[in-house]
Amino acid sequence: PSPHACPRNLLFVPVPTRLAVLQWAHSAKLAGHPGVRGTLASIRQRFWWPTREHDTRRFVAACSVCAQTKSGNSPPAGRLRPLPIPSRPWSHIALDFVTGLPSSAGKTVILTVVDRFSKAAHFIPLAKLPSAKETAQIIIENVFRIHGLPSDVVSDRGPQFTSQFWREFCRLIGASVSLSSGFHPQSNGQAERANQTIGRILRSLSFRNPASWSEQLPWAEYAHNSLPSSATGLSPFQSSLGYQPPLFSSQFAESSIPSAQAFVQRCERTWKRVRSALCRYRAQTVRAANKRRTKSPRYCRGQRVWLSTQNLPLKTASRKLTPRFIGPFRISQIITRYPRYLRPPGLPCLLYQARSSRPRSSS
Question: Which part of the chain is the Integrase catalytic domain (predicted)?
Answer without folding.
Answer: 85-244
